[in-house]
Design goal:
Elements lengths: L7 E8 L2 E8 L2 E5 L1 E6 L9 H7 L5 E4 H15 L3 H5 L5 E4 L2 H6 L4 E3 L4 E4 L6 E4 L1 H11 L3 E3 L11 H28 L48 E6 L5 H14 L3 E4 L8 H11 L9 E3 L5 H8 L5 E4 L1 H7 L2 E4 L2 E4 L19 H5 L2 H9 L3 H28 L2 H13 L4
Helix pairs in contact: 2-5, 5-6, 6-7, 7-8, 9-13, 10-13, 12-13, 13-14
Length: 424
């Protein structure tokens, strides 16, 4: 019987609760803590994959199950060979389950034990998403990390409301696990690297079973050889819910760990609760999460939030802020946020961030970027998004370095002091 896991995770350095690790996936190695750019509809908005790979070195991005399921649809993605081949991304992909997007539809959805019925925001058609359907969609997408289908309670949910949501999430997590395991046995994973694993396969022959990735254009980044200890299967992460109630968060974590997953996420935060409430929840559960598995804080957040969460032992993050804010004229810098619409930048020849080495800061001035934004040029959003992603990813690189060198508290203190001292 083959018992190798779909991913491996090891902590290589600690500084307090902060930890630097190595996450091995079937499509490459991810150093943690890691920020994952969000690619909702199969694209990280206003960014070419060449820039993400070659300059920014993003090791993993996200795809959105809900949006890709509705448009272009799973039949089209399956016909095109899975999401990696369809969009031309050859590195690891994580897909969310669709639970949060369905929750955000509000009155347009109806939740039952079986799943969630809702009206599509695209064409108004009646659709149904369940744990089983979510697992089937994510198998068709072929993501390397799959998220269980969960029910997200409002941030200010009462204890009774959050308890009911937790119970439903726990039952859905078990159903997600069962359907996911069945699909892995049946083999519809469109992200497979062409690996076949009969039950008597030995670890030493795994690498020999890797087929070339179909459809890769000439000159595409090579896919690293699969580490011998991995199966090549998809990984499945569980999600901890419970709103702002710490006792329910602990219960949710215990029940999720009991089912057993390859990694664990804290969901249902940044949905309207106070920032202090979010940190209370993270403080309550982060260090109780299995130490040998990746810990993922979903949908968070600003650069200072990422660093605060790293200090609490979190390894993985995603957020739309660098891309969304870039499209609306806001840049993240080492001295705080900068709005290019402000008239004070009209003739300013300095880069967005004088300590940033990204190609935008090396070439363009604040005055030029303001001009682009004021005249409605799409290049403004492209350049600002590139800089913002560079800032987020470089910040996480420096966080990893500081943990390895034992200087994380000093790095954190100086980073926050620079943000707070901004006079711009």
């Amino acid at each position: 019987m083959v018992t190798m896991p779909p991913i491996t995770f090891s902590v290589v350095a600690r500084d307090g609760h902060a930890r630097a690790g190595i996450l091995n996936t079937r499509r490459g190695i991810i150093e943690t803590p890691v920020f994952m750019p969000v690619g909702t509809a199969g694209t990280v908005k206003a960014t070419r994959f060449e820039a993400l790979e070659e300059e920014l070195d993003a090791r993993i991005i996200l795809g959105n199950t809900y949006h890709l399921w509705l448009r272009p649809g799973i039949d089209i993605i399956r016909a095109c060979g899975g999401l990696h081949k369809f969009i031309g991304w050859h590195r690891p992909l994580l897909t969310d389950s669709g639970g949060f997007q369905v929750w955000s539809l509000g009155a347009l959805r109806k939740i039952s034990e079986e799943g969630t019925e809702f009206r599509s925001h695209v064409d108004g058609s009646l659709r149904f998403l369940s744990p089983e359907v979510s697992m089937e969609v994510q198998a068709a997408l072929g993501s390397d990390i799959v998220m269980v289908f969960d029910e997200c309670a409002p941030g200010k949910a009462t204890h009774d409301q959050a308890q009911a949501s937790l119970e439903l999430t726990a039952r859905w997590a078990k159903r997600s696990r069962e359907r996911f395991d069945q699909l892995q046995r049946e083999g519809p994973d469109m992200g497979s690297l062409g690996i076949t694993l009969p039950e008597d396969t030995s670890v030493g022959t795994i690498a020999d079973n890797i087929a070339p990735q179909p459809g890769c254009p000439a000159g595409a980044p090579a896919i690293p050889a699969l580490p011998e200890e991995l199966t090549g299967a998809q990984a499945l992460f569980g999600i901890v819910q419970g709103a702002a109630h710490r006792d329910l968060r602990r219960e949710s974590l215990e029940r999720t760990v009991e089912i057993g997953f390859d990694g664990y996420a804290i969901g249902g935060l940044s949905v309207g609760e106070e920032k202090s409430v979010m940190w209370d929840v993270v403080d309550e559960v982060s260090l109780l999460m299995p130490p040998d598995r990746p810990r993922y804080l979903m949908g968070v957040g600003t650069p200072e939030d990422l660093i605060a969460a790293v200090a609490r032992g979190i390894d993985m993050f995603d957020c739309v802020l660098p891309t969304r804010n870039g499209r609306t004229g806001q840049a993240f810098t080492s001295r705080g946020k900068l709005n290019v619409k402000n008239v004070q930048w009209t003739e300013d020849q300095r880069p967005l961030d004088e300590s940033c080495r990204c190609s935008v800061c090396q070439r363009h001035s604040r005055a030029y970027l303001r001009h682009l934004h004021q005249t409605g040029e799409m290049l403004a959003g492209i350049l600002l998004t590139h800089h913002n992603l560079a800032f987020f990813l470089d910040t996480m690189r420096r966080v990893r370095q500081s943990i390895r060198s034992g200087d994380f508290p000093k790095f954190r203190r100086e980073f926050i002091e620079r943000l707070s001292a901004s006079g711009e």
